[in-house]
Amino acid sequence: MDFSRVKNISGGKIVPQSDLRVGTTLHEVQVVNPCRKRKNRMIGTWNIRTMRQLGKLENIIIEMERMKLEILGLCETRWQNSGDFWSENYRIIHSQGKNGQCGIGVVLHKTWGIKVTNYIIYSERIIMIQLEAESNDLFVIQVYMPMSKADDEEIEEVYAGIEELLKLTKGKDNVVIMGDWNAVVGEGKNGREVGKYGLGQRNARGDRLVEFSRENSFVITNTLFKEHKRRRYTWKMPGDTGRYKIDYVLVKNRFKNQVKSCKTYPGADCDSDHQLVGMKFCIKLKNIVKVERKQTNYNLKELKNVEVVEDLKKNMNKIYNNKEERKEPINKRWENIKSVVINASRTTLSRIKKAKEEWLEQQCAEINHLFGTNRLDQAYGTIKSFLKTNKTRNNNVKDKNGKLLLDTREVVNRWREYLEELYQGDELQDINEETDECSYGAPLLRSEFNTSFRDLKNKKTPGIDKIPGELLQNASESIVDAMYYFMKDIYETGVIPKDFCNSRIVTLPKKNKADSYDIVLLAETEHDLQRALAEMQIIINKYQMRINSALYGCETWVINEKEIRSLEAFEMWCWRRMEKINWTERVTNEDVLTQVGETRSIIKAIKRRRWDMMGHVLHLRHDEELHHTIIEGAIEGRKPPGRPRNSYISQLKNDAGIDTYAGLKRLAEDRDKWRAKLKTL
């Protein structure tokens, strides 16, 4: 199949969904390289209805290559999680959909994907991406407005979010806002914000969009150019009963001269009732200077081989020169030790840099070997590691006043300010000041150093020096001696190398706008739970906690001995976590309970709540009640062979010490006896 045929099929809409041809044309389509220098570039927005269809992403990429689109904003992606990933030559940054709905994203060709300096996933309806360009940075804001049935408060909340993101940009920055606005601005010129070539009659949503454009000096570009009406509408009602223009691309008024054209492209097909809106504009990309990074990842698994360790020690002894080293400054001594370890490792150990195909073949062979040796847990664990998705970093960093920060320097300064406050302690005394010799600590012993050196943890990310702990543990005796005297001099003089004063901070992924925390409370009665909540009221108001019950619905549970042991283990786990007792301390459960002044209560709480509920149920005499039908109703047929299963009623009979269900009902008729029995549980 030639390329011209693929082009005709895609534009002609022979089939209602382009996904059908993905499997036959994906490897035959000629990729148009957008890296070549051309005056006009193309950016667009498209409501694709959903991305949760097989082959939908490939369909979008094919249409982008055919239409020569470099940046495409997507609405209604409906992906469950936010993400940032690459698919061949395209980078996709997207938000998560709320309850499987909404969700937006931006697809960038690699010429723009590598120029992303920052992005903010504000919500499931707003996302902003900062791109490097000549003279002024380009900010792309993708928007998906609520539908017509939404309240005005929800609409104003989206506009407020857009205005908050606009405050992060500068007046000279080039800003493009595009998406599905669910508004009709109508046909006819209205100021400099709206051109003459709109479509339809303006509605209330259109008035709000025009007002927003006027307040922020934006121009609606797809109303400026004279096009046929088939190139103006962006959405078609079911059954083609009406056509409307509700998708728009906005640019700043000072940059409207860069726009060469803006119209819809009905030939683009992704099985959506919306049309692709594309804007051609003139902008220059900024050249990026690539910084070469030295590969310092060593295959530390080779250190399990005794011969490799011996070669490593020999190479260290050859390189290291310890003549009168203690007379040199601390920084120079550390640089000497570091260079010896790194150079010897480069000579002895191999680098972890294999071809992708070779690596995949080795992983597949390992999985087959695990299946062949019947180690299914390890095999499925290895497979699961391939299927896991990387967590997206949250770029929404705020200052003390809650204002979003976008500039990289401001973000770094905010992290530094936060860490300084977090680790701020008592003011340290200068070690160089004259102090009493009695205040000095004990000298650093060689045995203490050897113990700390031996207890270095493995498989930890190295610091600024890029030296893993495994290399130090397998160092030669000369290096170990040098490290001991080096650390001893630091302890005695107080002079610390520069590498020891710097640290590498790794931010952990966090959900967008995750401002709430979860905590679990256990209580026997509602009164005890209310008392615990009253004591925690100050903390709850400060951190906005949610309280979840671990025993919700336990009145209806049927539990056996195994489940009882699991619940008791969970109870003790909670006490150990609250008291910060590690299992390595070898503290028994009885000692933990003695320390907290409590007894095992979770099983007793379940029994009491079950007994309290059944007291009301058995006391009723209405045979028509549903609970009577559930408890006393007969099941047709014969029971399966084997030991009878534990039932709900048998649990109550065991708690009461009664052999028959009739005796249990007679006990329930006397409320005083039933309550007295409840106290003994």
How are the secondary structure elements laid out?
Blueprint: H1 3-12, H2 22-25, E1 40-47, H3 56-67, E2 71-75, E3 83-87, E4 90-94, E5 104-109, H4 110-113, E6 116-121, E7 126-131, E8 138-144, H5 152-166, E9 174-180, H6 204-216, E10 218-220, E11 235-236, E12 243-244, E13 247-252, E14 259-265, E15 276-282, H7 306-319, H8 330-348, H9 356-372, H10 376-387, E16 397-398, E17 404-405, H11 408-422, H12 446-454, H13 469-473, H14 477-493, H15 498-501, E18 517-521, H16 526-535, H17 537-543, E19 545-549, H18 561-579, H19 589-596, H20 602-619, H21 626-632, H22 648-656, H23 661-669, H24 671-680
Parallel strand pairs: 1-2, 8-9, 18-19
Antiparallel strand pairs: 1-15, 2-5, 3-4, 4-5, 6-7, 7-8, 9-13, 10-13, 11-12, 14-15, 16-17
Helix pairs in contact: 7-8, 8-14, 9-10, 18-19, 20-23, 20-24
Structural features, described:
The structure is a single chain. This protein is of the alpha+beta class. Strands 3-4-5-2-1-15-14 form a 7-stranded mixed beta sheet. It has a 6-stranded mixed beta sheet with strand order 6-7-8-9-13-10, with helices on one face. A hairpin with a 6-residue loop joins strand 7 and strand 8. Helix 18 crosses helix 19 and helix 20 crosses helix 23.
